[in-house]
Design a protein that fits this description.
Elements (H helix, E strand, L loop, with lengths): L1 H10 L5 H16 L5 H29 L20 H26 L1 H16 L13 H8 L2 H12 L4 H24 L1 H7 L4 H5 L1 H26 L11 H4 L1 H9 L3 H27 L1
């Protein structure tokens, strides 16, 4: 049971809504179009979650190897740095998580063809190269673009495609919202770790442009994401109940206030969890509104 708890901690369950939410949205849009297919939807969900877990494991391992995780880190415990999991074991766990995602991907490729090969390969490579390789994305301020694309239009569009075998521009536009919420999650993480990242040369956008920039990025990510249904309604003149997502910024007010006023790690950790819940809330309201 102790080891199970350690691996759950390593998987970072509070971040997994970033993997679940786009699949929820893509499936709701596929269902509304009359193209829902539950086995591909479940395979997409499993693959998305395993890619997220694999990415989190890879971050745990490669941040430890690069010295980014120190004993005085402000964020939740990293199990490799804490000595709870050996580096070799974490490296193996990363490979297993991505391999399990590929198992789901094999079925999805059989159903939907070569576009899923491209999506799957790029998603796995990006998950690894986020912190690995000679030019890790997260260390050069490219993490925000990565999560916007792969946890946004790619995840929503891919989920829709494996069910409908078709893609619509409106689906990709809808995908920007969960992508932006994932950017907000990453921004809180980078804002919390700004001093430590600066010390080791990890050039996140928060390090490059400062705390004020990161705080504004967080605010705009939530506001723009919650407004995406307005653009969808203007384009389609349908699904007016999806506009109820405009209540999400009001629910986000306590988190936004903490981002603009706090400096301590525990507060940012609570905001990180709260932002994941906001993503789930948005996805639920949007999906339900799209179906009504």
């Amino acid at each position: 049971m102790r080891m199970l708890g350690i691996w759950i901690l390593a998987a970072r369950p509070k971040t997994l809504w970033a993997a679940v939410s786009p699949v929820m949205i893509g499936t709701a849009m596929a269902y509304e179009s009359g193209a829902a297919a539950w086995l591909p939807a479940l395979a997409a969900l499993f693959g998305s979650v395993m890619i997220q877990i694999g990415t989190n494991f890879a971050n745990d391992y490669f941040d430890y190897k690069k010295g980014a995780d120190a004993h005085n880190r402000l964020g939740p415990m990293r199990v490799t740095q804490a000595g709870l999991v050996r580096p070799g074991t974490m490296k193996l766990a990363t490979a297993i998580a991505f391999s399990l995602a590929c198992v789901a991907g094999i079925y999805l490729v059989w159903r939907a063809g070569w576009p899923i090969v491209v999506i799957g390969v790029l998603s796995v490579l990006s998950g690894i190269l986020y912190t690995a390789g000679p030019y890790p994305l997260g260390y050069h301020g490219l993490g925000d673009i990565f999560v916007l694309i792969f946890f946004g239009p790619v995840a929503v569009g891919g989920t829709y495609y494996v069910q409908s075998l078709n893609i619509e521009a409106v689906v990709l536009l809808a995908g920007l919202a969960p992508g932006l919420f994932s950017v907000a999650i990453l921004t809180v993480n980078n804002l919390r770790d700004i001093d430590g990242d600066q010390a080791i040369g990890k050039k996140t956008l928060a390090v490059r442009f400062g705390r004020t920039f990161a705080r504004i990025e967080y605010l705009l990510s939530i506001l723009v994401a919650s407004s995406i249904p307005i653009l969808l309604y203007i384009q389609t003149r349908q699904h007016p109940f999806s506009l109820l997502t405009m209540v999400v910024p009001f629910a986000a007010f306590p988190a936004i206030q903490k981002v603009f006023t706090s400096h301590d790690g525990p507060t940012f950790n609570s905001v990180l969890a709260a932002t994941g819940k906001l993503l789930l809330l948005y996805s639920f309201i949007f999906s339900l509104g799209w179906l009504l």
